[in-house]
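Q: What would this complex look like in 3D?
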Amino acid sequence: MANQEDLFKKIISHSKEYGYIFPSSEIYDGLSAVYDYGPYGVELKNNIKQYWWKAMTQMHDNIVGIDAAIFMHPKTWKASGHVDAFNDPMIDNKDSKKRYRADVLIEGYMDKLEDKANKEIEKAAKRFENFDAEMYRSTNPRVLEYDNRRKEIAQRLATAMTNADLADMKAIIEELEIACPESGSRNWTEVRQFNLMFSTQIGALAAEDSTIYLRPETAQGIFVNFLNVQKTTRQKLPFGIAQIGKAFRNEIVARQFIFRMREFEQMEMQFFIAPGTEMDWYRHWKEKRMKWHLSLGTPESMLRFHDHENLAHYANAAVDIQFNFPFGFKELEGIHSRTDFDLKQHQELSGKKLMYFDPEQNASYIPYVVETSVGCDRMFLSVMSQAYTEESVPDAKGEDATRIVLKIPAPLAPVKCAILPLVKNKEELTTKAREIYHQLKMSFECQYDDKDAIGRRYRRQDAIGTPFCVTVDFETLEDNQVTIRDRDTLLQERVSIDKVAAIISEKTDLKSLLLKL
Ligand code: ATP
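A: Here is my prediction, written as structure tokens for the whole assembly.
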């Protein structure tokens, strides 16, 4: 665990040092849970978005995109239930004055029980040969006790959340003797509801009805445009609408870097279907979305499904795809069967029909919806936390040195190729290298670098995750060949200059990922 914490700290400082992520308004000591993406960060983020967008829209004839405004008519949020129910239960510790989400405190306790059970299993695994972890989990009394206790608490929390039973949440915290992580004190306030939406005023007059909200999810922009899109693209059910955009939530506890931010970006797709088919489509999208994550080379052991214990007011089934972040398995993406709740609500509050005429059934109905919703920033963090690697390699003098390398999947890497003349003060070399650079930058993101010794330049490119370095040396001037160095294997290959663009394109094009879907 200490190692993982250490790794997380290193990722945060590396992200800052190499222009990936900066704290927002840093010169004013930052703004809590708000971050800016730097020059490499924005490239990586754009590539993640592009991969998602292509996988969703380009690869599906029946999915189209939109880009709806952040501001929406305030009735939107009444209809969606956000005004009345988009709350988190909060609790304050009277001694430390720190504020927490009551459910997160209880979940933290449950995580500890899970850790204890896992430790028992790990210990036993070392003792026995041919160890069957699943069998041990279901039979060992101590592990069973931890697991059952955790399930009991989960059940009780789920019921309390569904019924907004704040008193029971407080009771759970007291019964479990949960202490404030900051002060160790158990001196808690009552649990209160806290609405997560940011509001502001539209127009010059601050009248009561001029309150509008910054959207807390992108989904509603899709719902209110459902018929506009269906009619203009002449789509038939089933069809989907995809959108990437900012969302805002006034999170109570905003820690863990870009995992939980107050301003973040979502990549969402709402799939409109005939009522009664939702469970089939729900399973379909669960599988498809998992495949998308795996296509990036993420090992299966780092991803898992997690069924929701308490369903949101709009859902009849919901699952998270969790990723094993440096702080444990946490939600990366949500897949929800949202029924016809949203469209029905919008139809009722707007008084406008949101029905679809199904020519096959010769009937009109409000479609059901299956949603896939992945946080772009959490995706970014999952890529960074898998990419950050420290390796021991011999330096120029043959002594052990640490190489820090970001092993970002090549098609997502901010810079695909660096062009490096072997030495900087030889004009023939720098001219040739610049010539190659100007050719290659027409095909993908490139950098030309002639500062410092070649070894240092390689390290710099490793640290920003550039998958290929092209080195121009004296032989190049004679045989028109360059060396391509592979970031991950460190293998060097001599190739003719006219082949470089094709070789690197093949390995860095998003197509190489799309082919795996
Ligand atoms: P959590 O339980 O972690 O608060 P959620 O269940 O409220 O998340 P959804 O409403 O399902 O999240 O949003 C869909 C996706 O948007 C999430 O899977 C996550 O990747 C992303 N997301 C949600 N809230 C945030 C946030 N505060 N910062 C960054 N990403 C977020």
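A: To summarize the key features: Residues 217, 249, 251, 260-261, 264, 266, 331-334, 373-375, 377-378 surround adenosine-5'-triphosphate (CB under 6 Å). The chain has three domains: 1-79+197-397, 87-195, 409-514.
Q: Very helpful, thank you.
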